[in-house]
Amino acid sequence: MTAGSLGDILREWRRRRHLSQLDLALDAEISQRHLSFIESGRAAPSRDLLLHLTERLGVPLRERNPILIAAGYAPVFAQRSLDDPALVAARQAIDMILKGHEPFPALAVDRHWTLVSANAALGPLLAGVEDESLLAPPINVLRLSLHPDGLARRIVNFAAWRNHLLERLQQQIAASGDPVLRNLLDELMALPRPPASPHRATDEVHDLGDIAVPLQIETEAGVLSFLSTTTVFGTPLDITLSELAIESFFPADARTAEILKALPLQPDDD
After folding, report:
1. Residues 27-46, mean pLDDT to the nearest whole number
2. Structure confidence by residue, pLDDT tens digits, 85-94
């Protein structure tokens, strides 16, 4: 978060969302005059109004606590480890979703795309990663996907998938202003492209047209094609929980589904 007065911080978030004072005032159902006074420091918002404004601005929970502190209020949102007893139910829900998605791959990541958990169906897709350091915790999923010694050389539609991932990352940066993600974007954009696979010209690739960008990846069983979806917790009040996302991969064709259903899954360690 940029240092400054409460008004400066709110103004920065409003501009980041490309909203005028009138736009935000109408959305928050307050007068533009009142919002102007808050941003100029001539009026102090109540705690409830400040929470309402940050909600309307889509400020990440991580950044709402500093805004409250800047206004003289105590922080509201806790940040717990996933091992905290208070998050047991949430962790069980994540494990249930991941396990229930088998035999199709699914994984949970944090705000920096660090792998938090994955189901057993992900393992076969990671076979052949040449740089084992990419699989050493903490595993960054984007780095693993786009690194030439990671999965990149086996992604058939690498250019399209790379563009898709980088666009998502850019959108995340625009929404959060996270400097760690900015550095990650710079790193990923500087990675060399993998050499073209000799199998890409001959393997049959499933075309989804204009519906979505699939992940098409070479395996020992041939090219597998996936559609991906992202699941987040709907009404989190904990910072850690608000930053978790579950990436689920669904077969984009019948052949992929049949192959995955036939693959043996490595049993969980626990």
Report:
1. 96
2. 999 999 999 9
How far apart are alpha carbons 87 and 244 in whole angstroms?
Answer: 12
- What predicted TM-score, i.e. pTM, was given to this entire model? 0.87
> Two tokens at 218?
């070479």
pLDDT at res. 264:
78
Q: 158: buried, middle or exposed (CB in 10 Å: 19+, 13-18, 0-12)? A: buried
Give CA torsion, residues 218, 219, 221, 225, to 10 deg: -50
Least confident range from 46-55, 140-149, 174-183, 200-209: namely 200-209
Backbone angles phi, psi at 124, to 5 degrees: -60, -25
N-terminal to C-terminal alpha carbon distance within the chain: 40
As a whole number, the mean pLDDT across the chain is 91
DSSP 88-139: HHHHHHHHHHHHHTTTS-EEEE-TT-BEEEE-GGGGGGGTT-S-GGGGSSSP
| 224 SS3 class | strand
- Tokens 């047991």 locate to 88
How many whole angstroms separate alpha carbon 158 and alpha carbon 143? 13
Specify the residue for token string 């109540």: 46
Distance between CA atoms of residues 240 and 243, nearest Å: 5
Q: What's the rounded Cα separation, in Å, for the pair 76 and 135?
A: 36
